[in-house]
Design brief:
The structure holds 3 protein chains of 3 kinds. Chain A is built from 11 helices and 11 strands. Chain A is of the alpha/beta class. The longest helix of chain A has 19 residues. By secondary structure, chain C is of the alpha/beta class. Chain C is 26% helix and 23% strand. Chains A and B meet through α6, α7 and α9 of A and α3, α5, α6 and α8 of B.
């Protein structure tokens, strides 16, 4: 079983759109995992049925019982996160800031504070319209710890892949280099970068590929919207060669992606064009590189 | 005055707008642009200025002195499993530590003093009109929030309240975005008129409302996709502050690291319109 | 000699758990007594963060000489393993505990340098 992760570093390069097409092409062989839990969009193209859902709990929140509070301010003194605030002489917990460390609970002389585990989202396993099982999640707004929710999604995807005898887990990752991306990369066999030929795209790709190289995971790159800037394409190709990243394909800018999205379709379903063909070829190459 | 530029979806044009808006306003006012997308800070690519300052940014982590009675209280206290007692050793795991200081303060033998650990680098630049501060998170460092918090603090210490502070925020709706936008007087949400754009905008709106923030929407790449985003804003009573046309020239300029508004008159017009709307909302003083 | 296994169940026929930090069970085989004991790791798998070090600590408290697992330890777990003389063998994923023991005896598992990089 191989885990293939699709990430971009920078948002907006077309990662989810491209990945959705791969999901369509690979449907019989794979389980889909949407680990872009912060802003998950893949479901709009794959029409999952949310068959199973489970609440996801992580981290704790301080709860202050005003009746037991004697206004000593010990909690305010120790909180490093501005999680305790004083308004009109009354102390209260600011939910959005509370880090869940429990320090205030430990110093409160009247045990007026207790810690409660937080429901921060839900994860789901669904049948998707392409026939493959899809594991995805929705995180509550402002929630922390997307890293562990990502781990949850992946573990469920692995369990299902094993049970269904699927060869591939195809994973949609999130932008950036923080905890969610690190968690997404753990255990990956191959990484596909989807980037664009812009200074931002190149800059962000370099940062995220450093993270990937740190895990010693082989990788390849698709340059999307390549016709926007031929000079940057050359720059990207030089970088890829230096960094040992395989060059999978170049895709021209195509508003077909948006047109397809408006109909809730992946590009390869929507049009039988040269761009679709590039995606078909890319998927074949990826399976080859990932030694599926 | 603090204006944050955020979005649910990545790649909608936050940095495009932040850099151009900041540069435009800086022609007539004191402005500092702050790049708080510390995981992938790329505003710098569009600002042509001289570096005036650099400093390492730290978070404080407990470090075991090597000698204590091994009471194990620290392990019990830590809510993040960042301290583990193994045999006759106390081990601290820096990436798991949230720097709450509980273990250090409450250790009965003061065996866990706090030591600094580098989490990133802050850089300051200056162009003729504009001041610019960015921070970048060290690769492998898991938490963006402490770096964002310290960067904002640095800006408050070094730029007085007369300055308009434009925060280029990270994408998404999770804790780094909360940290970047929570002190803003006004938040501009940048979206694109596509299904992904609309879905993620709704998430961002939910966050803004939960935080009680004043906010408005800028629709970028208008003309692509459909009108659903506009209809949604109308239905929800959300101000659409500007609509920036879907223009390949903009994408090409952006890809080359060029400030858009200097080359595209229609975009400059939209910035003037945005400036008027912000003046109306009392966000920026009339000039 | 005592040998520890990360496993998905409590018996010789159970499959090896490829994970270390979030393994479901820790099994200990005591060669001298010819006994296999099972220890649940549920309290740690529930944790939001930092499962690796806690699981290793639990394993070390049981005093095995050898640990047989699948993928090997992540960075933090490896750090804790390095405080002891325990030997790690990886590559046992998809084998049963019995098969993994045989593979270890036959020298077909890879010895790990205690760090998965």
């Amino acid at each position: 079983m191989k885990e293939i992760v699709v990430i971009s570093g920078k948002g907006g390069t077309g990662k989810t759109s491209v990945m959705a097409s791969f999901s369509y092409l690979g449907q019989a062989d794979l389980v889909i995992a949407d680990c872009d839990v912060d802003a998950a969009d893949l479901h709009m193209l794959l029409d999952p049925d949310y068959q199973n859902s489970e609440d996801y709990y992580s981290g704790e929140l301080a709860i202050l019982d005003q009746e037991k509070c004697i206004n000593c301010g010990a909690c305010l003194d120790v909180c490093q996160f501005d999680g305790v605030q004083k308004e009109n002489g009354i102390f209260r917990i600011e939910e959005m800031n509370c880090e869940g460390c429990g320090y205030c609970q430990r110093v409160c002389p009247t045990a007026a504070i207790h810690m409660e585990t937080q429901k921060v989202g839900q994860w789901y396993s669904s049948n998707s319209k392409v026939g493959s099982t899809m594991v995805h999640a929705k995180m509550g707004v402002g929630a922390e710890n997307s890293g562990r929710l990502v781990a949850q999604v992946k573990n469920e995807a692995r369990r299902i892949a094993k049970a269904e005898g699927k060869e591939i887990i195809l994973i949609d990752g999130s932008p950036g280099i923080g905890c969610a991306v690190t968690s997404t990369l753990s255990g990956a066999d191959y990484v596909v970068f989807v980037t664009e030929p812009s200074v931002s795209g190149i800059h962000d790709l370099k940062r995220v590929s450093e993270l990937v190289q740190g895990f010693s995971i082989p990788s390849g790159c698709i340059i999307n919207k390549y016709d926007l800037n031929p000079q940057r394409v050359l720059e990207l190709e030089a970088f890829m060669e230096d960094a040992g990243i395989e060059h999978i394909a170049n895709i021209p800018y195509d508003e077909g992606f948006t047109a397809a999205m408006l109909e809730g379709k992946t590009l390869v379903e929507y049009e039988n064009s040269s761009v679709s063909q590039i995606l078909v070829e890319s998927w074949k190459k990826i399976k080859q590189f990932a030694k599926v | 005055m603090k204006i944050a530029i955020a979005s649910g979806k990545g790649g909608t044009g936050k940095t495009t707008l932040a850099t151009s808006l900041a540069s435009h306003l800086a022609e007539s006012r004191d402005v500092v642009l702050v790049d708080l997308d510390v995981e992938e800070p790329n505003s710098r690519l569009f600002i042509d200025g001289d570096q005036t300052h650099q400093q390492d940014v730290y978070k404080e982590i407990p470090q075991w002195t090597g000698a204590c009675s091994l009471c194990g209280q620290c392990q019990d206290i830590c809510n993040f499993n960042a301290i583990v007692q193994v045999g006759s050793q106390i081990m601290v795991f820096p990436e798991l530590c949230h720097s709450c200081r509980a273990c250090s303060d409450l250790c009965p033998e003061s065996a866990l003093p706090l030591k600094p650990r580098k989490i990133g680098i802050l850089n300051q630049f200056q162009t003729e009109d504009l001041d610019f501060v960015e921070s970048r998170l060290e690769i492998g460092e898991q938490q963006a929030v402490p770096l964002i918090a310290q960067t904002k603090h640095y800006v408050d210490e070094n730029f007085d309240d007369d300055f308009i502070k434009i925060y280029d925020s990270p994408p998404g709706t999770s804790c780094p975005v909360i940290e970047a936008t929570k002190d803003a007087d006004y938040v501009i949400l940048v979206t694109e008129p596509t299904p992904f754009g609309l879905y993620d905008l709704k998430l961002a709106v939910e966050v803004m409302r939960k935080m009680g923030k004043a906010f408005g929407v800028v629709v970028n790449r208008y003309g692509l996709g459909n009108e659903d985003v506009i209809d949604y804003c109308q239905l929800e009573g959300i101000s659409v502050l500007a609509k920036i046309a879907n223009d390949r020239r903009i994408a090409e300029l952006y890809s080359g690291g060029e400030l858009i508004y200097t080359s595209i008159p229609e975009f400059k017009e939209q910035l003037f319109a945005l400036e008027s709307r912000l003046t109306l909302h009392d966000m920026v003083g009339a000039v | 000699m005592k040998i520890a296994f990360t496993a998905k169940g409590e018996t010789w026929d159970s499959e090896i758990d490829p994970r270390l930090g979030r393994t479901v069970f820790i099994l200990i085989y005591d060669e001298t007594k010819n006994e296999l004991s099972a220890h649940s790791n549920a309290d740690i798998t529930e944790q939001s963060h930092g499962a690796g070090p806690l699981t290793v600590k639990k394993i070390l408290d049981l005093n095995p000489d050898v640990l047989i697992t699948g993928n090997g330890p992540g960075k933090n777990a490896a750090e804790v393993l390095n405080t002891s003389a325990i030997q790690i063998y990886i590559g046992a994923s998809e084998l049963t505990v019995k098969e993994a023991l045989d593979a270890y005896k036959n020298g077909t598992l890879s010895s790990s340098s205690k760090s998965m990089s």
